[in-house]
Write a structure and sequence with these properties.
Number of strands: 0
Helix content: 55-70%
Order of helices and strands: HHH
Structural class: mainly alpha
């Protein structure tokens, strides 16, 4: 006995656009979280601790941007 199941999937362009928008939003939220966390943690370090890492306080935002968004 042979059985054939056929499942048709309707590709909804609108549904895909909504899904892509939510995915993009999710990525942006995660990047913003990484940026804020990096700035917060580096800002909490003393100048001496930053110097030990070969960093200056003025570099914190640039480093956080690179960590969150890449180069």
């Amino acid at each position: 006995m042979a059985v054939v199941n056929e499942v048709r999937r309707v590709d909804s362009g609108f549904a895909n656009k909504i899904a892509d928008a939510f995915q993009s939003l999710s990525v942006r939220i995660e990047q913003a979280r990484v940026y804020r966390t990096t700035v917060s943690e580096l800002s909490a370090l003393a100048d001496r601790e930053l110097a030990d890492l070969a960093l200056h306080r003025s570099m914190i935002h640039a480093i956080a941007h690179e960590a969150a968004y890449g180069k």
